[in-house]
Design goal:
alpha+beta; Sufe protein. Chain: A; 44% helix; binds zinc ion
Length: 140
């Protein structure tokens, strides 16, 4: 079942998070929390020629928060700051239900669509993205 596949993707990122730790040097660093759930995430990134050469997350949180952080780092690496902001804003619109989720081309990100059914968890899924957005905006 498709839904089970997506749950598997989220659990996989939760158990084996990608890009966890701190980017060195941390040209960009921002920390934020979601007190409703107790999630706390710090996003750090190394910038080279205006592009995100490395991006990592650290902190603690629930499975959705950590999985979403892990998925996000994979999506933002290699992008320019402007591209990254655009990508983040699109995801935020999807998580608000303002625009529909894409299809298979979204890769692992598609797995987060299921969170829309649990409005109270949306903040868990968007915390890292919101944090990265704040960090990038502070650099522009
Ligand atoms: Zn959470």
């Amino acid at each position: 079942m498709l839904e089970e596949l997506y749950q598997e993707i989220i659990l996989d990122h939760y158990r084996r998070p990608r890009n966890r730790g701190k980017a060195v040097p941390a040209d960009l660093a921002y920390k934020d929390s979601n007190p409703l759930c107790g999630d706390e995430i710090e996003v750090t990134a190394t910038l080279v020629d205006g592009k995100i050469k490395d991006i990592k997350f650290d902190g603690h949180g629930c499975s959705i928060c950590l999985a979403s952080s892990s998925i996000m780092t994979g999506k933002l690496v290699g992008k320019t700051l402007a591209e990254a902001l655009n990508y983040i804003e699109n995801f935020q619109k999807m998580m608000r239900g303002d625009i529909p989720f894409g299809g298979k081309e979204m890769g692992d990100l598609k797995a987060l669509e299921g969170v829309l059914k649990f409005p109270v968890r949306v903040k868990c899924a968007t915390l890292a993205w919101h944090t990265a957005h704040r960090g990038i905006t502070a650099k522009l």
